[in-house]
Amino acid sequence: MDMLVVGAGEMGRWIAHTADRPVAVTDVDPAVAERAAESLDGVRAVPTDTDETFDIVCLAVPISVVEDAVERYAPNADRAMCDVSGVMTGPVEAMRATLPDRERVSLHPLFAAANAPGNVAVVADAPGPATDALREDLRAAGNHLFETTAAEHDTAMETVQAAAHTAVLAYALAAADVREEFATPVSAAMDDLVATVTGGTPRVYREIQETFAGAERVAEAARRIADAEGEAFDECYREARHDG
Fold this sequence. Notes:
The protein has helices spanning 10-18, 30-39, 66-73, 89-98, 129-140, 150-174, 185-198, 202-211, 215-227, 231-240; strands at residues 3-6, 23-26, 43-45, 54-59, 77-83, 103-109, 119-126, 144-147. The protein is an alpha/beta fold and 244 residues long. The chain has 2 domains: 3-148, NAD(P)-binding Rossmann-like Domain (Rossmann fold, 3-Layer(aba) Sandwich); 152-240. An 8-stranded mixed sheet has the order 3-2-1-4-5-6-7-8, sandwiched between helices. InterPro entries: 6-PGluconate_DH-like_C_sf (IPR008927), NAD(P)-bd_dom_sf (IPR036291), PDH_N (IPR046826), Preph/Arog_dehydrog (IPR050812), Prephen_DH (IPR003099). It comes from Haloplanus rubicundus.
């Protein structure tokens, strides 16, 4: 079974490399697709307007354009479509409406490609042999796949992505420049997290913040802690430790 990967960025290259099958890649920037194909054994680049069909079409595009991509590339999907966009409710609904008679799976690798393998969230909306084989490719590469619902996934992203990124970036913006010798285990760990987040691409993190709620809750919690005195601070501490 062959596969077309739409989007030759980091995650598109990762799934093209991980899938154990013939793969073609396309991208809005043809040069990006060509470079991806050159860097991956057995992968070829095709134009964005290709009318070639594939057993599976996998959308590795930004969150803001994934639903449009479902409609655009549905005719290229003979048997199945999946996405690795990072949001699930919208893509699942779009695939269900546009490809009612084909296999449909939404995947979210919960890691940067450089940190693979890792956990992959799965919404198997309409699974079948083609998408089962793709999921087996991911497992064979050492990834842990777990099933969820689109609603559960998107709610979880409010905490593990939007809120977490907000907290890390807020610390980075608030932190003063101090000598390295003053670092504590907590501040050193925070500095490592800042390096991880800011080592990525701003657009990716911006789209996460614009898609998922969570940032405001972090801001409200920070103000609550800043204003807390005496027993009020102790209560915040116990609540954070989940024994309040």
